[in-house]
Amino acid sequence: MSQSELSSKMSSGSSSTAMDKPPKLVLDEFIAAALSNTPAELHPFFESFRTLYTKKLWHQLTQKLFQFYDHPLAAPYAVDVFIRFVTDFETKINQLRLVELGVKAAKEIDNPQTHLTFLTSILSRLNTEKSPEAHVLLLSSIAHAKLLYGDLEGTKTDMDTALGILDNLESVEGSVNAAYYGVAADYYKAEYAPYYRNSLLYLACVDVEKDLSPNERLIRAHDLSISAFLADTIYNFGELLMHPILGTLDGTDHEWIKKLLFTFNEGSIGKFEALAPIFPKEPILQENYAFLRQKICLMALIESVFKRPAGERTMSFQTIAEETRLPVDEVEHLVMKALRWVSRTFHSFTFEMRMGVYSQLTHVFG
């Protein structure tokens, strides 16, 4: 039976995923309708709901609800269970868990506007001052719904509000951080460096194997790699190279992208040139070949400087030209870009540390 059909059975009134006031629960009617109109595999859940609700065992009831929402047959009934049942005791349970249940239910709403209205109705009843983590999770989920709906301004407003709250919290559950960084990564999808940073932060907050499907892992690994290549402020791929998500590229048509990442990290211009003929498989890399060539030269220069003994880091323009395979008259421009990279990359270091790194690179002038 469909979700809408179950709604009519479980209540004499009309069902709506965008209610201002939750309907009054008549427990026996709710349970009877559920047992009559859901698969037998779900019946033990509803029997437990009745017992735990009657005994006012709210924590245990919350745990049972999570088990229900994770059941593969529960999806068509998720929204109605939340509206008809959970909202009756929503103030009695942990508010972060309430929002997590609401977000799970909302995922079953296909219509973007209805999805958004459902989430905002929960927000209107949430005590945000007493439940800042729940507030962040809900704002992030609402921001994501707005992003899907095409409301970029509304998305950014909710993201900024959520980040402001996060910055003032001493400890935050992983699911809350994941919700924020997940929507931030999606929002900045077209801006390579912000997408790269937020996406890595998102991955740090989730269980990649459990929380992402194989296809989602492949897409994330691919998009992160492309962002690493094309971001003009990212010249260290170490965090991405160490992340297990890159393993999803193995054995796929994108495996060569993983090889290219390691090539950049090594500063190997020879390997870069060997892989260049494959770039047309990723048109955006082919279109940005000139930028990528310059980037690999810069990474080759940086690698060449720091792999030399401390007392042997003075390099002539001719040496740099040979190691980067550039004409001598283009070396000075490359060196200046390297110095600007130092300024950006080490801006958070102490002055003494920053100048130490800077002085090492200035030796390349010879």
Description:
The chain has helices spanning 3-10, 27-37, 43-54, 58-69, 78-84, 95-106, 112-125, 132-149, 152-166, 174-187, 192-204, 208-211, 214-230, 238-241, 255-266, 269-275, 283-287, 289-307, 317-324, 331-345, 351-362. By secondary structure, it is mostly helical. α6 (95-106) runs antiparallel to α7 (112-125), α13 packs parallel to α15 and α20 (331-345) runs antiparallel to α21. 33% of the residues are buried. The model is unreliable at 1-18, 346-358 and 360-366 (pLDDT under 50).
Produce a short descriptive summary.
65% of the residues lie in helices and 0% in strands. The protein has helices at 3-10, 27-37, 43-54, 58-69, 78-84, 95-106, 112-125, 132-149, 152-166, 174-187, 192-204, 208-211, 214-230, 238-241, 255-266, 269-275, 283-287, 289-307, 317-324, 331-345, 351-362.
What's the total count of β strands?
0
Overall shape: it is elongated
| H-E string | HHHHHHHHHHHHHHHHHHHHH
Structural class designation:
mainly alpha
* Average residue-wise pLDDT: 84
> Nearest-angstrom radius of gyration?
27 Å
* Unreliable stretches covering 5 or more consecutive residues: 1-18, 346-358, 360-366
Give a short account of the largest sheet. none
Q: How large is the share of residues in beta strands?
A: under 5%
Oligomeric state of shown chains: single chain
